[in-house]
Amino acid sequence: MFLEEIEMTFMAPCVSEENKIRLIAQMSTDISEVMPYLNAKIRNATYNKDTDTITFMKEVRLITLYPRKIFMAKAMNVTDAWQTLDWLKDTINEIYENRDDIEPDYQRRVRITALELYGWLPKTNCRECGELTCLAFAVKLLLGEQKIANCKPLFKPENAKMKELIFNVVSALGYEV
């Protein structure tokens, strides 16, 4: 096994959401060589080869990997944090094991803002997605708390071209369609 263990070394309430936690964990192995492969497989990752970091969202959790450390924000609780760390360990080991079949990706993906995403939405504020506004929907989509498929006006015939564009953009950026 490539990565034997992950040890949580710090935990505190999350700065932005006090009912959630943030943490730092130490990995038993330097994962630098796996980062380009993780970047290839984790679709919403941002890899920075200059600083040797990879940052991504797993649902609502913000995770940044360094060669031997993990920073996580917005874990629901301690159990959720451990489950996410276990998932990370399994994912890193699986990707390492299958790296010969994966094309490494050294590129940094472009990130978009909620305002940019909002610009591509129908802007009806219809609330069919469960959000009060299309801008709130765009924010939640980028946080991984919404899916573009929940934007019902996109499925109207008059929005077919917009739907195709936004589905391609959202998919290319690694968000769930």
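^ that was protein a. below is b, sequence first then the tokens
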Amino acid sequence: VLAMALLTLSLPLTSSQEYVPSEEWSAEGGHSVLMEQYTATWCDVCASVDVWMPDFTSANGNRVARVAVHDTFDDPLGTPITAHRAQYHSTALAAPSFWFDGSLLFGGAPDKASLHRALLSAEGQRVDDTRMVLVVRALTASQISISVELSDIATPDSTQVSLFALRASASIGPEQATNGITEHHDVAFAYAETSIGGDAKWSYPDASWDDATGAGQSVEPGGVVVLTRTLELPEGVATEELRIVAVHESSSAEGSEPSTMGAVAVSLGDQGDSDGVGLLVPLSLILVLSTLAITARSRR
């Protein structure tokens, strides 16, 4: 019996311990607050804030979806996304700047208490959250599809879904890190806007997203709207290091603050580990105990 128990517990766990990449990642919600941060690798004040950003977002979980857009001057992480999103805000950019659901947080470099208050304020001002389901699928090693399902839409007219593709962690060389920070988080590298009617609008990099005719849109029973876009990943960027943020917001004119009606995010590295190890060991113990019980009865 002891030999059988040892044999059972020594069953190879290799297959269940191996990392198996997920082909699909999903998140459901819409209640998250979009926190856009304008920052720069040359900004010393930004460095004092950026270092504790991962702790802030982790502590608040799904309450906040952070997007970091970097300056395009002398910053290797800057993209045209920064200028495009800046046109929606009525104030001039000053690093660092934070917008919660489009509302600017004033006061230079904030502390954690200020950000927590701004988050609470944004949550209190949100009315009629759009219910959102975000599904990301790996089509190939370098291409993903992003589908957003929207329901309970209070104001469908003149609204859009904005998709941010982020690098959960992006590293730069010490020679590029003017402010001394070499690792940055939630860095936007791709972005696309799609009207609620399914028409593709502004995107970057434009060649990496499907064209206007490829922006899928369908209306399901009950008024549920599903929008789908595909994104070709740049060389050297793997799916497991990505974070996708989907936002339902008003199609704001230049200089008017966007109105966020829903936001949801999913990290593509969260669901890759197999749960097989956690199940195999308890099942093995149950099998051993059952064997011992049967053997004990047979000896009576």
